[in-house]
Amino acid sequence: MVAVVAAGGVLAACGNRRSPYMFDARGSEAHRVAGLWWLMFALAAGVYAVVGGFILVAALRGRGTPEGRASRITENAFIWLGGLLVPTAILMVLAVVTVQTTSHLRRPERDPLRIEVVGKRWWWQVRYPAQRFTTANEVHVPVGRPVEIGIDSDNVIHSFWVPQLGGKVDTIPGQHNVWRFRATRAGTYLGECAEYCGVQHANMRFLVVAEPAAAFDRWVARHLTPHSAPTSDLTEKGQLVFLRETCAGCHTVAGTTAQGDEGPDLTDFGSRLAIGADTVPNDPGNLAGWIADPQSIKPGILMPPTALAPGELHALVAYLESLR
Ligand code: CUA
Question: 238 and 315: one domain?
Answer without folding.
Answer: yes
